[in-house]
Structure formats: C-alpha cells, structure tokens
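Protocol step 4 of 5: obtain the predicted structure for the target chain.
Materials: sequence only (see below). No template structures provided, no constraints applied. The aim of this step is simply to have a reference model before the mutagenesis design in step 5. Sequence pasted as it appears in the construct record:
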Amino acid sequence: MSYVIGFLAGAAWGVLGACLNHYVLGRALRGGDRKVLGANLLRVLIDLALLAAVVLARGALPFPYEMALAGTVSALGMTGIYFAFRTASGRDE
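Step 4 output (structure tokens):
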C-alpha cells in the first residue's frame, strides 16, 4: 500500500509541476519567439528541480521515494501531453 501512496503523492507533485510549466509556456507564447526559447530552458529547470526535490527529501518521505519519482515523471509526461494538445487546439488563449 505504501507503494501506491508514494506513486500518488509523486503524481500530485508532478501535476503541480506540469501546471507551472504550462503557465510559464503560456506567458512566453504571448511574448514572442525569444521568450519561448527562454521558457523552454526554464521548464527543463523546473522539471529537474521537481525531481531533485523528491530525491533530496527521500529520507523524510514515509513511502518509497522510487515510487514518488515514478509518479512525478509519469504525471509530468502525461499532463504535459494533455497541455500540449490543449494549447495546439487553441483552447488556451
């Protein structure tokens, strides 16, 4: 059961990070091509910071941190794909 809780906690953390990434990209798309390039770098740094936070907090987590990492990566990927399709379809303007 602790594996499931760890995965769900990581997924929640990943969804929060994906929402932050989407916000950064949305702001950059309104600003032009140069801002999008900077936003992509910032989004990568956000992803790395999210994963580093899980690894650094591994001693304090009450569940296996590997499952939290897996949940974070899964949620970042799936939510990122959802936001990409949403942005491409024009629903985020």
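Step 4 remarks: The mean pLDDT is 91. Residues 2-29 form the longest helix (28 residues).
Proceed to step 5.
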